[in-house]
Amino acid sequence: MSSQFGKRLKVSVFGQSHGDAIGVVVDGLPAGFAVDEAALARFMARRAPGGTLTTPRSEADTPHFLSGLVDGVTCGAPLCAVIQNTNTRSGDYAALADQPRPSHADYPAAVKYHGFADLRGGGHFSGRLTAPLCVAGGIACQILQKNGISVGAHVASVGNVHDRLFDPVAVTADDLALPASRTPAVLDPSAGEAMAALITDTANRGDSIGGVVECAAVGLPAGLGAPLYDGVENRLAAALFGIPAVKGVEFGAGFAAAAMLGSEHNDAYRREGMGVVTATNHAGGILGGITTGMPLVVRVAFKPTPSIAQPQTTLRLSSGETDTLSIHGRHDPCVALRAVPVVEAVTALTVLDMLLEEKGEITV
Amino acid sequence: MSSQFGKRLKVSVFGQSHGDAIGVVVDGLPAGFAVDEAALARFMARRAPGGTLTTPRSEADTPHFLSGLVDGVTCGAPLCAVIQNTNTRSGDYAALADQPRPSHADYPAAVKYHGFADLRGGGHFSGRLTAPLCVAGGIACQILQKNGISVGAHVASVGNVHDRLFDPVAVTADDLALPASRTPAVLDPSAGEAMAALITDTANRGDSIGGVVECAAVGLPAGLGAPLYDGVENRLAAALFGIPAVKGVEFGAGFAAAAMLGSEHNDAYRREGMGVVTATNHAGGILGGITTGMPLVVRVAFKPTPSIAQPQTTLRLSSGETDTLSIHGRHDPCVALRAVPVVEAVTALTVLDMLLEEKGEITV
Amino acid sequence: MSSQFGKRLKVSVFGQSHGDAIGVVVDGLPAGFAVDEAALARFMARRAPGGTLTTPRSEADTPHFLSGLVDGVTCGAPLCAVIQNTNTRSGDYAALADQPRPSHADYPAAVKYHGFADLRGGGHFSGRLTAPLCVAGGIACQILQKNGISVGAHVASVGNVHDRLFDPVAVTADDLALPASRTPAVLDPSAGEAMAALITDTANRGDSIGGVVECAAVGLPAGLGAPLYDGVENRLAAALFGIPAVKGVEFGAGFAAAAMLGSEHNDAYRREGMGVVTATNHAGGILGGITTGMPLVVRVAFKPTPSIAQPQTTLRLSSGETDTLSIHGRHDPCVALRAVPVVEAVTALTVLDMLLEEKGEITV
Amino acid sequence: MSSQFGKRLKVSVFGQSHGDAIGVVVDGLPAGFAVDEAALARFMARRAPGGTLTTPRSEADTPHFLSGLVDGVTCGAPLCAVIQNTNTRSGDYAALADQPRPSHADYPAAVKYHGFADLRGGGHFSGRLTAPLCVAGGIACQILQKNGISVGAHVASVGNVHDRLFDPVAVTADDLALPASRTPAVLDPSAGEAMAALITDTANRGDSIGGVVECAAVGLPAGLGAPLYDGVENRLAAALFGIPAVKGVEFGAGFAAAAMLGSEHNDAYRREGMGVVTATNHAGGILGGITTGMPLVVRVAFKPTPSIAQPQTTLRLSSGETDTLSIHGRHDPCVALRAVPVVEAVTALTVLDMLLEEKGEITV
Question: Which ipTM did the prediction report?
Answer without folding.
Answer: 0.96
